Every structure is written in structure tokens, then in C-alpha cells.
Amino acid sequence: MDVSVTVNGTTYARDVEPRKLLIHFLRDDLDLTGSHVGCDTGNCGACSILVDGTLVKSCMLLAVQADGAKIETVEGLSENGELTALQQSFNEHHALQCGYCTPGMLMSATALLRDNPSPSEDEIKKALQGNICRCTGYWNIFDAVKAVAK
Amino acid sequence: MTENATTVAPEKVEQQKGWGGQSVKRKEDKRLLQGEGVFFDDIKRHGMGYLHFVRSPYAHAHITRIDVSAAEAVEGVYGTLTGEEVAALTDPFFQISSAPGANIKDFALAVGKVRFAGEAVVAVVAETRELARDASELVEVEYEPLPALVDARKAQEPGATVLHDDAGGNLMWSGLYSWGDVDGAFAEADRVIEIDELHFHRFNSTPLECDGALVEYNRGVEQWTLHTNNQFPGFAAIMMGPAMKVGLDKLRFVTQDIGGGFGNKITSHPQLVVCCLLARKLNRPIQWTEWRTDFHLSMSHGNERWFSDTKVAVKDDGTLLGFRTKALDDAGAWLRYEPLGGVIWAQVAPGMYRWRNIELEFTQVATNKAPVSPNRGYSRLQQLWFTERVIDIVAHELGLDPVEVRKRNYIRADEMPYETPNGCVYDSGDYAAMLDKALELIGYEGMGARREQAQAHGKLLGVGIGSTLDSGTNNFGQSRLINPELQFSGNNEVATVKLDIFGEIVVTLGTTPQGQGHETTAAQVVADILKCSPDDVHVRAGHDSYWNSHAGFSGTYASQFAVTGLSAVKGATEMLRDEIFKLAGAVFGGVPAEALELADGGIRIKENPDAFLPFMACGAIINANNAGLPEDLDVTLNCRYVYRPPFQVPDIETKTGNLTLTYAAQIHVAVVEVDPETGYYEIVDYAAVDDCGKRINPQIVEGQVMGATAQAIGAAIHEVFEYDEDGNLLTPNFYDYHVPHALDMPPLATGSIESPSPFTPLGTKGMGEGGGAGIHAVCAAIQDATGKKVTNSHNPYQRVWELLQ
Fold this sequence. Notes:
A: Ubiquitin-like (UB roll), 5 strands, 15% strand, B: alpha+beta, Aldehyde Oxidoreductase, domain 3, 8-stranded mixed β-sheet, 5-stranded mixed β-sheet, globular
């Protein structure tokens, strides 16, 4: 099936097998390997992206369902190599270790901060509960998000 | 939240000043934050085929027929590999064990029989991952099911089903460890505390990235390149080369970023052999990415262990004299790194305590479950949980305060370095001071009032202490206690440091980091020696065995980078520094080294700072402008150093010797509130205090402490690889295997002290595996809250409810 999506401002048109997952389409067909796969069951959130402004787990959507959508992935966060305030805050607070969950974590936090620029600690935890991190124990991630909340 | 204090360092160690000790921000982060890391699954090759494994639905069965023809007939399927082909093309993997475990025959795919549910039987390769999965469904395998053995305690009963006929039974390895005067200790005891059974459960750290590889075969030079996240390529090569009947240089291991390892990515060698054989057979690159369920079914579970018939000799005042116990280890179906777990525990035989008389009978058996392999805190975790459980049960039985029993029995700071009854040397530490600090962070003074408050609203409050001795930098000679025929001993790690044409300082490591920040800490060590900034130091990301910057034990495992890796970096950088002095002396016309100094990214004459040679000039002269240099100037500005820790081979007869070089320590305190009606409990406060000697980067150290804590909390409450009686795994994905998420995390206070190691070049200790303490602390807190003896390491709410009935 023909699928056309705009990812981080660039439009891609591809012929896609109907059953292909959106995450595999992004990674295998568009070479956007920043979003990751950690579980296959929608639990881990490593594949989290924004589709038309809504946070989704891209392993839970088919590529064909995203036809016509505007997609944002981790690759689109920084501009001209300049890290966003959130990305910088992750660096300053040591909110990542292996970095595998980080793209999804950043997308979930980005969605939260757009929706609610001044989240409480509890709101931060609830917003990130769909993203598993096995390295950090989350504490530094909470601090990193808190530090850029207004 | 973080509090730091410093103990007085032993005089032997030089205190460093400079970049070491500062929380320099990580160099790795920029790429990872932008989705620009390169993990193995990000690598693609033209015409590559995706591999999918056909797995056994049975825990134990004969394979009577395999037919791959329907799968191979599908358009887009490139080919298959069966166990029969593997058996024809390879030898069984080398076994670490002595007999009877030595006699088992382990191939990369099941041959003739399956021994756990999820064991790989056939590999199918196709144009897409979806097609490979579909075609796998068309592979016909007929099984003749056999009874499944899932309880290690029944493995040696008469009539038990036998996994490996070659071994003559299910016993894989056994050994008696006896140190000190155990009979004397029991004769001297006022009381003997008896504990029937303690059970340490099966789980692992489930890194978010599963295992995998992109494997290419170069037919012309008969060499494979493995882009893989295997975290111990040296071990994988030693296992794979002989099995595949090729020299180790035919196996090139390459990795950049790895999505977590925790020991679980050490034993992927069977799958890598399958990839290699298929890359050669099908003449195309092979891409294998493990699915999450595959990982849970088949990859590296942590060792499940029972301690039975435990007897503890104590004085009435709580002084511990000795113990006897029988440890039974469930290895699962294959010995992929085992039975090393049968000796690794001995690195911490007495835990943090002054037990001088210890007898432990260790038995490891095979069962119809996934093979066990290292998991963060490998085998010491189980032993430390045992020692901590014993302390709390002794305190419970004697009616003594667990804090007082610990302080009475802790090895004291003034006894360091302390030799344990089995010849291990604890290098430094002050456990009582760590406990005091942890209790202070938790507000222990006011706990009486908090207990009353909890009671007032119908809850039971409990406080529990747990400790981890994170023994690091293995002496691989301990493997000879398992099998005297083995020719392994000592340890090593490599670094190279060079000054390139334009003055770039380039560092190559032998390690395979998975988030530990090696690029950053290595740059800090180099910057201190060359008097520059870590920003000036380029540390190559990842590992490539083509760089010749690796040694037999290279990898990232077993809490050692801060010792082995950074000592190699220090050694290589000091060689480079000395060469820069030699070169500058010659360029300046015979100026002696003592008249020169490093400063501002170059070298100058102390008395005449205008005579300055920037690193750029040094690099350019040696590499591209070297005419006229003195003939005898022995300088390349490209230095390789191998760090080799000072070890002896342990004594095989007495099973004694120094098994690890350093002992980092953590003490955790958990406060829980239990609902007696339901068994539900929450961790309401938590403190973790760490001592890993000199910290090169305190923020990275704290990150390791936090991560290990979270893993321990998950293991204590939720995580378990549980099997039904037929050997089916009941927790094969993240729905059923609950790992902690953001809302599960309790408030955490961290603290640290620094007791530099007198035995390491930088005063550092490896410290990545502090996780166990949290499991012990939660168990102790539940016991304190409920007043019931806790005998299982895994305490979901239902088990706590059962305790209360």
C-alpha cells in the first residue's frame, strides 16, 4: 500500500506491506533508527513518537495507519545539532546511561511539557510511566524533566 | 539529596587532584540524546537476510523429525539451518566444568532433543523479518515429549528424568568448601540457629535492548565480522573459535553502543555461531534481533539457589562464629558460563562479617529451564542475600537488634586489608560508618514514632538493612577450583593512546560499555596526566577486535573498568607522556626531561616557557616531518599498555586464594509499610550508601548505585522467571514480567564515603553490581514489619499475605 508521511518536516512516500509496524517502517524503510524496539508488546515505550502531536508507541500502530500524518521523532528534537533544553537537562542530570530508552523517554517528556509546561513531580511520573528504563532507576530522569519545567 | 563524606585514605595511596573526582558531563550523551547512537540493530547491509528461530514448545522432548522444505519453498526465504547441520559443521562448545558437567554436548541448535521450552531448533532466514517469522511457522518439527524436571531439589531423586545422558544424571558439578575450624566453632557456640531452607529466585536484569547481531562473511579471507552487542567478546571468541574450528582472528567483533547488558549479554555465543554458519552457507549478511519473548525464554537467567540445612554457631551476645550450609544451584538446561557460579560466590564467602569458620557444600544440577548465566551481582548476590538473611534470622531468634548484631560482627575499618578465611583480601572499607550514614539518611532515630503512626492507621512499619560487597576485577584462576585442568588465571585489559598528526589525543579501549560512561572517565584520566581538558581527548566509541586494543579478558562485566580499564588508560597515557618528554628534549636540542613540563596542550621548558612545543607540533614531527631526528630516538607517540592485576593462582586443594582485587561496598536501608489485611506493601523511604574507593566521576558512580537499586527493588517485589510444572515459562514478556516503572520508585537518599583501594593504580574499585543490597533490605524490612521469618528473596504481595496468615 502507498503510504505518505511527513517525519520531522520531510515527506516520504513508500510502498509498504500492510502489516508492517510503524516502528519498523521508520527504522527499516526510512533509516530513522533513533526510535528503538524493546518489548514487542507496547510496554516499554522505547519506540515512543508523536503522530499529529499525540504521543504514541509506534510498535502499536501499523505504518499504513500513519498515512498522511505528521510525525515527530527524536531525530527532530534538536536543531542544527543544538540540543534542546530538555536534552541538555538529561545530560546535566545524568538521566541516561545506555541511552536505549532515551529517545522514547524524551518524546514522552516533550509531549508532557507541551501539554503542561509546569508539571508536578507526580504528573511527571505519570507521564513517564509508559517508558521503561532499566539503567537509571528514573530518579535522575524526574530531576531532568523537573529542571526544565516552568 | 546526595550527601558525601570522606574517610581518611590509607597512606599508600596518592590522592589525585584535577579532573579525576569531578562529575564531568558525559561525552557519550550528545549522540544518544539525538538518536544518533549506533546500536547493532541500526546497521544494515545490502541483501541481508533476517533470521528467525523456530523454538521448542516443549520443555523436554526427543526430536523425531524436522522438515524445512515447505519453509524453504516460500519466495523470499533464503534458507535454513538445523541442529543436524550444526552438529556436522561444528564441535560441541568447550565446557568449563569438570566431570560430570564436562561430558555434556552443547551445540548452537538443539540436536536430537530439546531441553527447555524456547530452545532454538531451526533457524530460518528470509528477505524481511515478517517473512522469516511466517516461514518459521511452516517448519515441521515432530516431538516425542518427555517428563519435565523443573524443581532442582528433585533433580537427583531416583527415577528423575535425565536431561543429559552423557553426564549420567542431572548433577553437573559439586564441591565441598570448608575453611577454618567449623567443628570447633560449633563446640564453642552458646546457641546453634537452624534454618531449614532459604530460596533465592530466578530473574534477570532484562536490558531494554535484546541480544542480536549483523554478521558478515568475507569469503576471500574466510573471516566473519560480527556487529553484535555481546558484552564479553573475548569469552565469546574462546567459545566460538574451537567449536567452529577456526582461529580467533577469523572472528572480528565490532560494537559501538549497547542498550544495557548487566551480564545478560555474555552468553549469546550459540546464536552468534548460527549467524556465522548461515552467513557462510547463504553467502549474505545475516541480521538477528532477538524478540523480547525470545530473550525471556532463552537468554541468561540469573542463578536460582536453595540453601538448606543451614546451621549457624553463635554466642548469646550475637557474635557469629561459623556456619554450615548446603547450596543447590539450578543451572537450567545448559552450562553456558556455568558452573562458574559454583566458585564466584566464594569471593564474598563471609559477606561483610567476621565469620572465620565456614562450610558450604555446593551442588549444581541441570533442569528443563533456560540456561543461567551472569546477571548483575553474579553468584555473589545469592551468597550475600544468604549472609544477610542469616544475620536477620539470628537477630530474630536471639531477640537482638539487627543493627547491633551487624555492628558486632562487621569486619572493622582497622582490620583492613582483611583476609577472609578463604584467602580473599578485602582491600579497604568502613562498613559500620556506612551503616551509620545510611541510618542517618533514613531518619532511624525517629523510627519508633513512625512505627506508632503507621500502627495508628492500620499499617505495619518495618526497617531492613542490606549490604552488597561488589567484588571486582576477577582472578580467573578461580575457575581452576571448578576444573583444575583449566589454564586460565589472572586478568588483563588494554588501552592505546596516541598523538596524531594534528595533535589529536586518541584513546582506544578494549571494553564494551553499555552505559557506564567509559569514554568520559577515560578522558578524565588522560586529561590529568597530559594536563589538558577532557574535551581535548577523543575516546573512540565501542569495541573492534581489529584495533589490537583488546586482550583475553577484554569486555565490560564483573565490576572492573575503574580498575582494569582505567589502569590500562593510565599506563598507556604515562607511556605517551614520557615519549612526549623524550621528543621535546631532542627537538629542544638535548634538554633533560626534568627541565620540561606539560602545560596548555603542549610541552615547554620550565625556565623558558616561550620554548613551547604544542601537541600538534609533536604529532606532526613524529608522523609527518621526522627527517633529522636522532636515530636512537625511540618514540612513536602511539602507546599500548596492558594492565595486569597482581594475582597468584589459588590453591586448588584448600580452595583458598585472592579471587578478586577490590571490594566496593554498598549498604541500603529500606522502610516499608505493610497492609496486614492484604499483604500489599510500599517502600516509603530508602537510602543507599556507597563506597567504591576513589571515584573518578561521582555522578556516574551515583547513577550506577541508583540503577542497581531500582533493579533490586524490581527483583525483590515483582520480577521472577516462573515455570509451571510442565516447564512453561509463565513470564515471557513485559506484561507478565513486571519491571519497575516511574510510579514504582520510592523516595531515595544516596550517600557515599571514599576508602581508596591500596591495591589499584588510581585507588579506584569496580562498582557496577551493587544491586543485591536492595533485595536483602526489602526482605529484612518485611520481616521487621510482620515479625515473620522471610525465607524467600522474592516477596510479591501475595507471599507477604501468606506470611501473615
